[in-house]
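Try it yourself: sequence plus phosphoric acid mono(formamide)ester, in.
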Amino acid sequence: MSKSVRHFLDLNDIPAETLKAILAHAHELKKQKFNPPQIFHGLSLAMVFDKRSTRTRMSFEVAMKQLGGHTVVMNMEEMQIGGAESIEDTANVVSRFVDGVMVRMSNHDTLCEFASHTSIPVINGLTDHSHPCQIMADLMTIEEKLGSVEGKKIAWFGDSNNVAYTFAQAAPIWGFEFHIACPEDLKPEKKTHPSLDLNHVKWKGAAEEAADGAHVIVTDTWVSMGQEKEKKGKNIDKFMPYQVNSDLMAKAKDGAIFMHCMPVHQNEEVTPEVLDSPACVIYDEAENRLHAQKAILAWCLEEAGVSVQDSFDFGGTQDE
Ligand code: CP
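Structure, out:
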């Protein structure tokens, strides 16, 4: 029986043990960064963007090339799919040229529809729903800095967006507490987040309460990509009580780290003194996109011929 295609669309789709094996592989690949194994030799990845990107584009491109593969980068506006060509035809054709495809687009359902028509792995490079590649890099960073993720208190401040949602998905998988401090109208609820296990998400209206004793303080922009027009007249003042500043950091545990997936908006979601403090690990977090991407690609492309060390038998995958 042929195995199913290994898409990386959402953390909830992939067995916990597989996600943990991918993360362990990312740490190993980081150790090998100056002698990268050529496991993607002869393989190609397409990258399709309908939104801006710095970290996602660079990390996937460098990941493929350092491990011996190739990339093709396409802006969705310049593709035929931006005209009359159907999602199905595009998916079928892309499947004939490359071994995998990373897509950044707004609509998660469209991404899933695209994936349903491909015969190659599709990786979610960010949708309005989730950003799983980012969270793999973030968890890797927490493991590096704090030893493990399990049992930690991770506190999120500001907008309850796609990145926060993906952290919330990760909480029961890795066994950490996820506290989200945001305005009440953005509080995650069953009707807005039907697939989320809200037992693992603690909403706090008061930022200080969420920060209290936290091991990790994390925030993101208050105006997500694609929402600039919609939020232009938006009252961003309502997010000010959730700004990460020195007073908020002082509530966290000694040795707590500050994370942000970037790009940063200084004096909005975070103040310069936090960014300049030893707690700030955002550049390590950004670099870890590269190592996490390599491991995600290795898992997705295993069926295309990638072989990794025996210690990274990805085991119990969605194929079975
Ligand atoms: N964090 C992140 O996804 O960065 P880019 O938008 O630059 O890819």
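One thing you can check immediately is this: The two ends are 10 Å apart (CA to CA).
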